[in-house]
Design goal:
The protein is of the alpha/beta class. It has a single domain, classed as TIM Barrel (Alpha-Beta Barrel), CATH 3.20.20. Helices cover 40% and strands 14% of the residues. It is built from twelve helices and ten strands. The strands form two sheets. The protein has an eight-stranded parallel β-barrel with strand order 3-4-5-6-7-8-9-10, surrounded by five helices. Helix 8 packs antiparallel against helix 11. The longest helix is centred in the C-terminal third of the chain and has 18 residues. The radius of gyration is 20 Å and the shape is globular.
């Protein structure tokens, strides 16, 4: 297991991060997973023993139950708190009423205390906003997050599912007011969906922010269960919950290449899809979630996959984005000024 710096910090996180969306299973979240405490303890133990020190959750996952199960697992297993990097998120609806969601000072301050109680922790390593709130001034959100860092309840702050201009506005506000700034973005990125490369990857590189990848297998589409000749029967995650949206024909082109390559390497399709992300310099960590220990073990083996330059070029070609304006114009005009 390799350890990467998270953005422009000295914090080292494992190249794979254990996602907890399958923990609990209440309401809508039963579509993702419904693991009980015994199963959660087993997954967390296996992940930590494999060298994973990074665990990501969110207050909305199973309506808070995911955080509870995660906190109990840490204690049940006798894990050392300071050996772990624990991340959670705030923004989603956690209560009825007009102020039960969002990124207001009121909601954030209420929810950070609730997350700390559920996780049974004194502090959160990485506290992330889970999306954009167009009703709350970004300045109010950043000011509040900075208060949490200064109070010691939060070590670092991050964001998820934002546009590049959202992040640039936030980073500039933090910089010029000497406030805590986002150190990372958690975003969707996969061989079946490389949209992030248009605006966000260049931004992350320019601003030295870390990237945490969610849904690296495109909601299970790159798990090896889907082929042009058929899809899994009932019980598959995408049968119950068709998300994230993908261009299936382009994704099948990717799968065709991955299947051939996997046979040659004696690996699984999922391992290669994860390994491709691990080979992308902008990626700090890839979040893997599982319902079974066998799935987790298979995903962890992705850290052992090595690609040749030719293989990486083949995967890049089959999965590359269609050219869009202004990128084709920037490429054309900038050819004489490339580094």
């Amino acid at each position: 297991m390799k350890y990467n710096l998270l953005g422009n910090t000295g914090l080292k996180v494992s190249e794979l991060c254990l996602g907890t969306m399958t923990f609990g299973g209440q309401g809508f979240w039963t579509n993702i997973g419904s693991l009980d405490q015994k199963a959660v303890d087993e997954l967390v133990s296996r992940a930590v023993n494999a060298g994973i020190n990074f665990i990501d959750t969110a207050n909305v996952y199973s309506e808070g139950l995911s955080e509870e199960l995660t906190g109990k697992a840490i204690r049940n297993l006798g894990l050392k708190r300071d050996d772990l990097v624990i991340a959670t998120k705030v923004r989603g609806k956690m209560a009825d009423g007009p102020n039960g969601s969002g990124l207001t000072r009121k909601h954030i301050l209420h929810e950070v205390e609730a997350s700390l109680r559920r996780l049974q922790l004194d502090y959160i390593d990485l506290y992330q906003i889970h999306g954009y709130d167009e009703l709350t001034p970004l300045e109010e959100t950043i000011d509040t997050l900075d208060m949490l860092v200064k109070s010691g309840k939060v070590r670092y702050i991050g964001c998820s599912n934002l546009a590049a201009w959202h992040m640039m506005k936030a980073v500039d506000y933090s910089k010029y007011n000497r406030l805590s700034r986002f150190v990372s973005l958690q975003a969707y990125y996969t061989l079946a969906g490389r949209d992030l490369e248009r605006e966000i990857v260049p931004f992350l590189k320019d601003q030295h922010m870390g990237l945490m990848v969610w849904s690296p297998l495109a909601g299970g589409f790159l798990s090896g269960k889907y082929t042009r000749n058929g899809a899994p029967a009932e019980g598959s995650r995408r049968v119950a919950f068709e998300f994230p949206p993908i261009n299936k024909e382009r994704a099948y082109d990717v799968i065709d290449v991955l299947e051939k390559m996997a046979k040659e390497k004696g690996a699984s399709v999922a391992q290669l899809a994860l390994a491709w992300l691990l080979h992308q310099p902008v990626v700090s960590t890839v979040i893997i979630g599982a319902k079974k220990v066998e799935q987790l073990d298979d995903n962890i083996k992705s850290t052992q996959v090595v690609f040749t330059e030719a293989e990486l070029k083949t995967l890049d070609e089959v999965s590359k984005l269609p050219s869009e304006y202004p990128h084709w114009m920037l490429e054309r005009q900038g050819a004489d000024r490339k580094k």
